[in-house]
Amino acid sequence: MDYIDWFMRVLGEIVRESRATLEAREHGVDVTDIARALFGETFVARPDYWKTPQYTRLHLLFEEMVATGVLRKTSIRTRYKTWDTAYSLVKDPVPFWHSDCRLELEPEQEELLLLINKLSPQVASDHVWLESFRDEYTWTELGWPDGRRRLWTVAKELEERGLVRQAIHELRASYRGLVWETRRGLSVESKFIDELVQEWETTSVDFKRQLHLDTASQKAEFVKDVIGLANTKASGRRWMIVGFDDKTREYHGPPDSGITQNRIEQILARYVTPSVDVRYEAVGYRSGRVGKLEVLRDARKLPHSVARSLGDKAAGDKKRIEAGQVFVRHGSQTEEPTAGELLALREEGDRARATSE
Fold it and tell me: Which domains can be identified in the chain, with CATH numbers?
């Protein structure tokens, strides 16, 4: 568990507690109630629980939440109320993260932020916190000209964006700064996949609930779909996204861990001619891992066809493909091309090969 996970876990408890009682709704959530939810009844039953590192660091986390804009202090010292952003962040953090992850930093700003993010987070068995540290080590480690002066100039720029916290001769990481470093990939991928899900299946995008490449039938269906994506002339890039239910369009689950770039390349090299170039990776998504396969279309190789038959003919395998078959996508369906489509594919390939010579 990293600091972002801990922040989100605690915020989830705060949101739940904020609607649990009238007292919480009127006066805000008490830090002790959240400590009880996190560390147990026996923890707050101790007469000196408020002196413990866990309780002290929980207060600091609440202060970070105030600075982040999800909580606000009340007139009672240990009570906090939620802003609407807290509910939005707990429900779906990705849009909130995306605004921070899009920030462009200068090289010196990024270098300092990464160093602060490395030094500040601390992990215990039951909680995570951000430790402030003196600046001497930081500017010595960076080796910048102008030493401390440059350090505090750059730190001030980062603080103004909410990416670090600073006090007199001390620095500390922030929630938003850690999001910028650790959640950029998840944020960007989630937004990209959301956009594909919104349009759903097209001539250049194919969704799969799951993908397995163990049986001849499974391989045949996969080869057919890849050939269809590679052959079809359409604008934009071509994708096969694995992990979404085709009826509900909701996230179903992570891809088979046995599906790898190497495994896919082996199958396509054996059953597709000319060869098709692809890129596959399992990426982070808000609900879990998603398989993302990009099919790279090269007009010089058109048309792609089945290199050798695949599937059990004797058993009447409906997904069997025959050597020489060509496939294209008609909307969301993968089918054999019409005579006119096949001629157009061959002519496109001939033109591309002639131009490249």
Answer: 3-182 (no CATH), 188-356 (3.30.950)
